[in-house]
Q: What sequence folds into this?
C-alpha cells in the first residue's frame, strides 16, 4: 500500500503539492496521467525518497520511506529516470550490475553468478548481445531498455518509471509495456509509471492517477464498474474538453476537437 | 588488449622508468653498480651513499606522488563528470601554497614547518570550498566547482600579496622555487611521512573501487540504487585531498600529472573504470619519474619539475584531443 499523508512540496517559491493525501492499495500497474509540468515527476521523486516533503509523510506498506537509509529504500523502490545521460560511457554489463551495488560488500564487484543473472535478464529483453558493448554505443531506445534492466535487476518491490516509453517507436512501446506486464505477474512486483498516451495506459495499467493543477484529482481503477465513464470524464478534464474520448471494446480512442 | 596484459605492461613500464631514473643523475650509476649495491652489498662509499640516501629515496617519493596525483585526478574527473578537472580543483594546491609561503615568510621556513603549514593549508582550502558549496546550494557538482574556483582565486590573490611583501633578495626566490615543485629536498623522513599518508589512501581507493564507480552516475540515480551519495562524495573528496596535500606539501606544486595520467590510460588502453583506476597509478608514477629524471639531468643545475610536466602536459593534451577526434 502506498500512502501520502498531508504531503506538501515546493521548489523554491513554486508550490507543487499542497496537503496531498491519498492511499493506493490493491494495484499491479499504476499509470500517472497529466499534462507536462503538473507534478508527475515530482510525485515519483517524492515516492522514491529523492525529494523530501516539506510537510507530511510518505508510507509504503506502513513504512515511512524518508526514515530509511538509501540502502534499505533501494529494496523497496527502484527507478528509471526520464532523462537518460547520453555522455555516460560504461560497459552494459557493468551498468546493469550496478542495480545491486548497495547489496554487495564495499570492496566487491559483481561475480560470475551475477554475470549469469544479468545475461539472462538481458536475454529476456532481447539485448544480451549488447552485454559487452559500451552503453554510449547504443541507440536511445536500446539505452532505455538497459536502464530498465538495471531497475529490474535491483529487485525492489515497486518499479518507478518516469515516462518509460516516450523515446520509443510504436512497436517498442508495446514490447516494453507487455514485457513489464509479464514481469510484474511472474515476479510479483508493482509498477508506477507516468505516461502521456491514455490509450497505452489503458492497455497496460490497472489503476490511473490523474494530475491537474498540481493536484491528484482522481484515482480510477479498471475493475470499477464505472471505469470507462470516469476515464472519459477525467481525460477530457485533463485536456480541458479539447478532446473527445470514446471506447471501442477494450480500447480507448481519442479525437482532438478543433 | 586483455586486462592482465594491460597490468603487466604498466608494471613493466613503471619498473623500466624506475630503473632508468635510478641510474641517471649528476653521478651516474650503472646497472652493474646498482645490482652490486643492492644484492651484494658492495660498491664505492660515495656510490652506496648516493644510491641509498638520495637516488632511491627520491625515486620512491616520485613514484608515490605520481601515483597519488594521478589517482586523485582520476577520482575528481569521475566525480565531477568532467574530464578537465585536476586534483587541485577544490583549491588544495592554492591552500597548500599559501601555507608554505606563510611558513617561509613568517616562521623562518624550516622544512618541517613548511610541510605542516602547506599540508594544513591544503586541507583547510578544501574545507572552505565544501562550506561555500553548501552556501551556494543548487546542483552539488556545480556548486563544488564554483566554490573551488572561488577558493583558488582567493588563494591566488593571497599568494600574489605575499610575494609582493616578500624580500626580493632572499625570500621571493624560495617562494617561486617552491611553487614550481621539486623533489630535490626529499629525505628519508619526508618519504616516510608521505608513504604513511599516501599508501593507506591508495589502498582504500583500490579496495572501494567498485563503490567509487557509482560516481559516474547522476546523483539521483546513485541514490535510487541505494548508495549514500553524500558519504561517497565526501570520501572521494577526502581521500583525493589527502593524496594531493601529502604530495604537494613535500614537493611543491607538480602540475598536470593528475590530468594527464588518467587521459593517457583511457586513450592508450581503452580501459574500463576499474582498470583506469588501477592503471593510472603506475602510469602517473612513470610519467613523473621520467619528468623528474629530465629535470635533474637536462642541465648542470636542476630545474623545477613543473616546467617539464607542464610542457609534456600541453603536448600530450593536444595529442589526446587530436587522437580522440572522430571517436564518440
A:
Amino acid at each position: 500500500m502506498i500512502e501520502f499523508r498531508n504531503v506538501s512540496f515546493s521548489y523554491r517559491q513554486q508550490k507543487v503539492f499542497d496537503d496531498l493525501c491519498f492511499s493506493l492499495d490493491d494495484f499491479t500497474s499504476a499509470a500517472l496521467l497529466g499534462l507536462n509540468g503538473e507534478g508527475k515527476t515530482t510525485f515519483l521523486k517524492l515516492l522514491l525518497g529523492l525529494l523530501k516533503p516539506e510537510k507530511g509523510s510518505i508510507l509504503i506498506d506502513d513504512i515511512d520511506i524518508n526514515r530509511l537509509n538509501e540502502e534499505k529504500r533501494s529494496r523497496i523502490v527502484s527507478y528509471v529516470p526520464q532523462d537518460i545521460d547520453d555522455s555516460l560511457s560504461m560497459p552494459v554489463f557493468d551498468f546493469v550490475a550496478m542495480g545491486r551495488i548497495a547489496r554487495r560488500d564495499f570492496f566487491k564487484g559483481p561475480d560470475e553468478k551475477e554475470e549469469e543473472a544479468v545475461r539472462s535478464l538481458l536475454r529476456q529483453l532481447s539485448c544480451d548481445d549488447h552485454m559487452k558493448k559500451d552503453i554510449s554505443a547504443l541507440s536511445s531506445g536500446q539505452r532505455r531498455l538497459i536502464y530498465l534492466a538495471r531497475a529490474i535487476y535491483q529487485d525492489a518491490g515497486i518499479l518507478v518509471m518516469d515516462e518509460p516509453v516516450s523515446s520509443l517507436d510504436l512497436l517498442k512501446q508495446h514490447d516494453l509495456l507487455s514485457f513489464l506486464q509479464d514481469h510484474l505477474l511472474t515476479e510479483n512486483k508493482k509498477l508506477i509509471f507516468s505516461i502521456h498516451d491514455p490509450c497505452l495506459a489503458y492497455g497496460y495499467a490497472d489503476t490511473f492517477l490523474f494530475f491537474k493543477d498540481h493536484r491528484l484529482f482522481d484515482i480510477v481503477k479498471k475493475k470499477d464498474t464505472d471505469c470507462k465513464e470516469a476515464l472519459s470524464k477525467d481525460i477530457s478534464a485533463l485536456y480541458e474538453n479539447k478532446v473527445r474520448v470514446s471506447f471501442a471494446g477494450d480500447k480507448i480512442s481519442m479525437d482532438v476537437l478543433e | 588488449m586483455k586486462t592482465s596484459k594491460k597490468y603487466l605492461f604498466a608494471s613493466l613500464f613503471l619498473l623500466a622508468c624506475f630503473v632508468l631514473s635510478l641510474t641517471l643523475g649528476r653521478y651516474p650509476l650503472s646497472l652493474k653498480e646498482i645490482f652490486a649495491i643492492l644484492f651484494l652489498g658492495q660498491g664505492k662509499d660515495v656510490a652506496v651513499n648516493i644510491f641509498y640516501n638520495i637516488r632511491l629515496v627520491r625515486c620512491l617519493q616520485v613514484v608515490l606522488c605520481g601515483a597519488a596525483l594521478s589517482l586523485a585526478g582520476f577520482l575528481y574527473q569521475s566525480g565531477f563528470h568532467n574530464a578537465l578537472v585536476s586534483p587541485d580543483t577544490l583549491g588544495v594546491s592554492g591552500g597548500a601554497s599559501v601555507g608554505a609561503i606563510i611558513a617561509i615568510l613568517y616562521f623562518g621556513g624550516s622544512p618541517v614547518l613548511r610541510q605542516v603549514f602547506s599540508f594544513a593549508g591544503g586541507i583547510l582550502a578544501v574545507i572552505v570550498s565544501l562550506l561555500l558549496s553548501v552556501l551556494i546550494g543548487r546542483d552539488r557538482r556545480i556548486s563544488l566547482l564554483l566554490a573551488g574556483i572561488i577558493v583558488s582565486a582567493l588563494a591566488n590573490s593571497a599568494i600574489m600579496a605575499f610575494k609582493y611583501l616578500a624580500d626580493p633578495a632572499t625570500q621571493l626566490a624560495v617562494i617561486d622555487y617552491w611553487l614550481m615543485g621539486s623533489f630535490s629536498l626529499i629525505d628519508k623522513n619526508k618519504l616516510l611521512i608521505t608513504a604513511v599518508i599516501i599508501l593507506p589512501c591508495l589502498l582504500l581507493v583500490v579496495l572501494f573501487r567498485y563503490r567509487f564507480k557509482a560516481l559516474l552516475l547522476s546523483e539521483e540515480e546513485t541514490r535510487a540504487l541505494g548508495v549514500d551519495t553524500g558519504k561517497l562524495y565526501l570520501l572521494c573528496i577526502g581521500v583525493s585531498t589527502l593524496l594531493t596535500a601529502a604530495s604537494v606539501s613535500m614537493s611543491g606544486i607538480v602540475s598536470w600529472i593528475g590530468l594527464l595520467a588518467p587521459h593517457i590510460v583511457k586513450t592508450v588502453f581503452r580501459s574500463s573504470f576499474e582498470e583506469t583506476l588501477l592503471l593510472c597509478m603506475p602510469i602517473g608514477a612513470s610519467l613523473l619519474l621520467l619528468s623528474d629524471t629530465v629535470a635533474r639531468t637536462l642541465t648542470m643545475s636542476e630545474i623545477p619539475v613543473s616546467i617539464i610536466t607542464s610542457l609534456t602536459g600541453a603536448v600530450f593534451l593536444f595529442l589526446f584531443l587530436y587522437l580522440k577526434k572522430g571517436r564518440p
Summary: The mean pLDDT of chain B is 90. Chain B has one domain: 3-76+85-324.
